[in-house]
Design brief:
The complex is a heterodimer of chains A (286) and B (323). Chain A has 286 residues and is an all-alpha fold. Chain A folds into two domains: 178 residues, no CATH class; 72 residues, no CATH class. Chain A has a two-stranded antiparallel ribbon with strand order 1-2. Chain B is mostly helical. Chain B has one domain: ABC transporter involved in vitamin B12 uptake, BtuC (Orthogonal Bundle), CATH 1.10.3470. Helix content of chain B is 78%, strand content 0%. Chain B contains 16 helices and no strands. In chain B, helix 1 crosses helix 16, helix 3 runs antiparallel to helix 11 and helix 13 runs parallel beside helix 15. Chain B starts with a helix and ends with a helix. The chains are: A mainly alpha (286), B mainly alpha (323).
């Protein structure tokens, strides 16, 4: 009985940390740039596949570093080439990014086939806590995710660029008037988001499997977290990811493993009925 | 003005006659099947346009309402043995009622979050259908088959004519709605919802009506499709790719005008078939997405609606010159 409880708690922490990372990367693009960029999830997938492909050539830590950095660079490139062209028309951005996700799905299907692949862990081995076994790799995921979040937090609070990002998320016009270069700042935001996407991709791929359709499920999770936590609030995102993470672990562990998405959807419906602006949101819409 | 209308009316009558007489000159069962499916797909497309295209509440969950209609009809005919046509009618209504109840709380959120929520709906239905508890009714992963069909394969032209009539009838009705005052309010909601409220109109009611109509037609389309194929399964009817095809067809056609998306839907269906020999397997959808995305990027306002307007302009000017 204690074993079960401990398993749920630790798994809940692992999943929450992972979801926190995934959703933060996405929400910063939206709250800072007001861009609904769904291609974030495609880059999550790119990060995972990069890791898969490069694993045999370099030691694991190096592979991790390379995939994360390359994903970040690619994401910045995506911003500069494709997204900037359509910024004036948010609907088109939305449609184009969704199409991008699908095009990537088909390209990956052609290269890698629909088969699910498993990612080799960065750290091998199993840790045993009070009789329950956990993969060391997943614990590493928790550490990296929390490190990433803290790193981002420090960056935002201490550096000038970070404060510019914060300012841009609050008031675009005011920031422009204060002399903040929106384009450069957005590029930096995309770089950070790309880092998070890459890391999330490897983490999520290690937790489940890597297949060309893997970008679908994180989309729902991120939506649930964004809605429950409240739009535009980092604190909300953090707390919401803990809630959603634990709910998912509890439903899959205790009820039906196939009911994976249902708890998230249930949370969405619940929050929409009770408190549409989310737990820490400022208003119902942005 | 009257001359413009006459030209347009004649053109439409010609097109409708052309479509109805198709079985006379296209004997290929393969192509009749494609065109039948194109008729049903057109229903999906116009229903998406009247809700998301007009009000701006882009939903990526249309396959949810389609699937709802499809599964209702499948369950009614397969398990309860209801006759075909009443079952289709009931399914359309059930899709409308259930779909609208579920979408109402979603109206509180706007833009991107509405989009993602609607995106989650078909995935929700897919999981629901597969839960062990309900597989007895829904057929789980494999789905339900066989289901009653409209006509056996050699008599496919009957199914074609049936679906064509339904599509033309509903397209006309939806077009009338779009060009009416109600449709005008839908488009106004897209532009500035708050202003609509300030003018004394209840935006919520209008959104509700637009989605109700959209869900009805989508459910109808879903039921028709299910009885066209003769089976229902989560991966066939709830597939994400159908949603993308719908969005591409509407965007190519020109969202907010029913006519553009109609042309867009037939274009997309025919394009998909034409690509098949050139790009087999997974290449087909990739090529289609690239072509579709390319056309949308080139003409974000709507490729077909622009062409139609230009053609009309040319005709009218020629007639004016002849005066």
């Amino acid at each position: 009985m204690l074993g079960n409880f401990l398993a749920i708690v630790v798994l809940g922490i692992i999943v929450s940390a992972m979801y926190m990372l995934i959703s933060t990367g996405f929400t910063i693009i939206y709250s800072v740039g007001n861009i609904l960029d769904l291609s974030y999830f495609a880059f999550l997938m790119i990060g995972a596949y990069l890791y898969l492909v490069l694993y045999r050539y370099f030691p694991p830590y190096i592979v991790l570093l390379i995939s994360v950095i390359v994903t970040s660079l690619l994401y910045m490139l995506m911003y500069r080439t494709i997204i900037k062209k359509f910024l004036s028309n948010p609907v088109i951005v939305c449609v184009i990014t969704v199409l991008f996700n699908l095009v990537l799905e088909y390209i990956f299907t052609l290269i890698f086939s629909r088969a699910e692949r498993n990612l080799f862990p960065v750290i091998r081995g199993i840790v045993e806590i009070s009789g329950v076994k956990f993969h060391r790799n997943m614990l590493l995921v928790v550490v990296l995710s929390l490190a990433g979040m803290s790193g981002f937090w420090i960056f935002v609070k201490r550096t000038f660029l970070g404060k510019a990002i914060l300012a841009l998320s609050m008031d675009r016009k005011g920031s422009e008037l204060s002399g903040i270069d929106v384009d450069k700042t957005l590029t930096v935001v995309y770089a950070i988001s790309g880092l998070m996407a890459g890391l999330s991709g490897v983490s999520y791929g290690a937790y489940t499997a890597v297949n060309p359709e893997m970008f679908l499920f994180p989309m729902i999770i991120v939506l649930a977290i964004a809605l429950v936590g409240g739009l535009g609030s980092i604190k909300g995102t953090i707390i919401a990811s803990v809630i959603i993470g634990f709910m998912e672990i509890m439903t899959t562990y205790l009820w039906d493993p196939k009911a994976r998405g249902l708890s998230a959807l249930f949370c969405i419906i619940l929050i929409l009925y009770i408190r549409p602006r989310g737990l820490f949101g400022r208003e119902a819409t942005l | 003005m009257k001359r413009e209308n006459n030209v347009t009316n004649i053109a439409w009558i010609a097109i409708v006659v052309l479509l109805f007489t198709v079985p006379l000159y296209i004997r290929s069962l393969h192509w009749l099947g494609i065109l039948t499916f194109a008729n049903i797909f057109a229903l999906f497309v116009i229903s998406w346009d009247i809700s998301s295209g007009h009000t701006g509440y882009l939903s990526l969950g249309h396959t949810f309402f389609i699937g709802l209609g499809g599964y209702s009809s499948a369950i009614l005919t397969h398990h309860l043995g209801l006759p075909l046509y009443p079952s289709i009618c009931i399914s359309a209504f059930s899709s409308m009622i259930i779909g609208t109840i579920l979408i109402i709380p979603a109206f509180r959120i706007r833009g991107p979050y509405f989009l993602m929520l609607s995106f989650a709906l078909p995935l929700f239905l897919t999981s629901l259908v597969r839960i062990g508890y309900l597989t007895g009714i829904t057929g789980g992963h494999m789905g339900l088959f066989p289901l009653p069909v409209f006509a056996p394969v050699p008599e496919r032209y009957k199914t074609y004519l049936l679906t064509l009539s339904i599509t033309i009838a509903f397209s006309f009705l939806v077009w009338k709605l779009s060009t009416s005052d109600v449709g005008f309010v839908f488009k106004a909601i897209y532009q500035d919802e708050e202003l609509v409220g300030n003018l004394g109109l209840n935006a919520f009611k209008y959104k509700l009506v637009s989605f109700m109509i959209s869900n009805f037609i989508a459910g109808l389309g879903g039921a028709l499709w299910v009885h066209n194929i003769g089976s229902v399964a989560p991966h066939s009817i709830l597939d994400l790719y159908i949603m993308v095809e719908i969005v591409i067809a509407v965007m190519i056609g020109g969202e907010g005008s029913i006519i553009g998306p109609l042309f867009g839907s037939y274009f997309c269906m025919i394009l998909l078939e034409v690509i098949r020999p050139i790009a087999p397997g997974p290449w087909r959808l990739l090529v289609f997405t690239l072509i579709g995305g390319g056309i949308i990027a080139a003409r974000p306002g709507g490729f077909f609606i622009e062409i139609l307007r230009t053609v009309r302009e040319i005709f009218v000017r020629r007639m004016q010159l002849n005066d």
